[in-house]
Design goal:
3-stranded mixed sheet, 4 helices, alpha+beta
Length: 115
C-alpha cells in the first residue's frame, strides 16, 4: 500500500511466494529473493532471516517488478545475473537497491513516528 500511496506504478501486483529453503539458508551465497519478470512473480526466502531483512528484499524485488511493468526488464533483455558482465544490469540493480531500500526506510520511519 505504501508504494501505491507514493504513486509508484506497481499494479497489477505480482504474485508472491514465500519459501523456507534449508539449502539456500545454509549457503552464504544462497538466494534471499528473486523476481521472475515473465511470470510477474516475486519469491522471498525467509528461513533464518530477520523480518526486516526479508522486507528489504521484498522492497528491492518490487522495484524490479516496477521496472518490468515499465518494459525495462524481462523478455530476454538481460542475459546474465552478473553485474560485471552487463552495465545495463548494473544500473537496474543500483536503482533497485537505492529505491527499494529508501522506500523501506521511509515506510519504517513513518510507522515508527506513528507509534
Amino acid at each position: 500500500e505504501y508504494m501505491m500511496d507514493k504513486g509508484m506504478k506497481i499494479t497489477p501486483l505480482p504474485g508472491i511466494v514465500i519459501k523456507e529453503d534449508i539449502t539456500e539458508a545454509q549457503d552464504f551465497f544462497g538466494r534471499t529473493a528473486y523476481y521472475s519478470p515473465d511470470k510477474r512473480k516475486l519469491v522471498l526466502y525467509t528461513l533464518n532471516r530477520h523480518p526486516k531483512d526479508v522486507m528489504r528484499s521484498f522492497s528491492h524485488e518490487m522495484i524490479h517488478h516496477m521496472q518490468n511493468l515499465e518494459g525495462r526488464i524481462g523478455g530476454g533483455r538481460i542475459g546474465t545475473t552478473n553485474v560485471h558482465e552487463d552495465a545495463y544490469l548494473q544500473e537496474i540493480e543500483k536503482e533497485a537497491y537505492l529505491e527499494g531500500n529508501m522506500c523501506f526506510r521511509e515506510w519504517t520511519d513513518m510507522i515508527s513516528k506513528n507509534e
